[in-house]
Amino acid sequence: MTDLDARPDQQVIDAPVPEHPSPGRESRKLVPRRELGRWNPAKRGHDSLQTILAQSDIRAPDLLPIRHGRMSHSPWTYYRGAAAVMAADLASTPHTGIMVQMCGDAHVLNYGLWTSPERHLIFDLRDFDETLPGPFEWDLKRFLASLIVLARDNGISESAGQEAVRAGYRNYRKHMQAYSEMPQIDVWYDKIDIEQLVQYAKKENEEKLDALIESRAKKRTSRGVSKKLLTTVEGRRQITEDPPYRTHRLGDAAEEILRVVLAKYHESVPDHLENLLTRYDAVDAVRQVVGVGSVGMRVFLTLLEERRSGDPLFLQVKQAGPSVYEQFLGKSKYDNHGARVVQGQHLIQSATDMFVGWTSFQWAELDLDLDFYVRQFRDGKVIPKGEGVAPVLPRFAAACGHVLARAHARSGDSAAIADYLGNSDKVEDALVDFSSAYADQNAADHAQLAKAVAEGVIPSERGWPDIP
């Protein structure tokens, strides 16, 4: 029946279109926004020291004392190495169910600059060892809590640390809202270059900051680092040793191990890159100690030389184990954990080193079956230091918040995240509370580890050389 067919005494009313609640607002029922601020140590369900020690099984035993020593150095170095502890803690609380490709270890110093394949300096996340699909707020909480831990470590007041938390969160929320209104292809094209970073970081009297950063980046290349890392022995270049942090530990099997690992790596890269790599010969490799949380994982620095010119190319081959989140969120869909890291990196970053790939090695003598990922060593990487970031922490946190929002918007439902966060201060206030409370928890966990080290319960070596 049409409107014209209706009887005069009948009022025709258009039926209202039912409103379907958005996923973001539905998630507020799962985790009310103020609940994000709660931290209850009594419900964490694990012992932090035992969680750290449980990670020893897949690591080189002779390097564990270095790991313990570095983590026991301060609450900040502990936080850097304790992603597994925080993963268990985050998993002890309800989550929103709004999933993204998590970085997994988005603390404030895991953001940095490097040169894209197009040779532009890009500011982005830079560590993906723990990447896995998971709740967006887990990455956000690890990032924001790190600001308080870093502030305290550098003598910055609690109020200044909390100001940084607010700045980081507000920029995350602001850009997530913007991404939710953009075509997805534009989100994927978006990136933060050096000019944008400088706008976040510099003051009016810091006009030369961008030139300084670019100057540092140009020195951090394979050619630049070769001047510090290489020596010539009987007419052949070798990587210099600095035991126990850089050693030729592969022994008599070095040549065979290197051949197998690089052959499998070649299979993981596109044809055009494999063609480029055929122009190089593998010349040398050393075992390397890197970072804090990675210490004990087998990392090899490999020197390749171009046959025609002798131009050096350094590739880092780094062991990849299961993400610390897999026991709570389920196993990765990738059989090789190196592939998990690389594929997650491609999904998160706006531009990725063209040399990334993965490989594996079955070490029969040690009964080990190891996965690795491969990346270019250095290539313009400018990694911030805590003492340099601390004086400008709120501004640097704002830049990181922008990066994290873009990373999450690439893989997740930006509209759902924006709708969950809303426009009020509820989430901001809650995350400030959580960040300070979790920094307290981190300090207590560090004290537990430091006590075990001091009493000789676990082996420790405090050496921390300058790493070129």
Automatic annotation (TrEMBL):
Basic and acidic residues: compositionally biased ranges: 22-37
Pfam families: DUF2252 (PF10009)
Annotated spans, Disordered: 1-43
Official protein name in the record: Uncharacterized protein (DUF2252 family)
Protein's organism: Williamsia limnetica
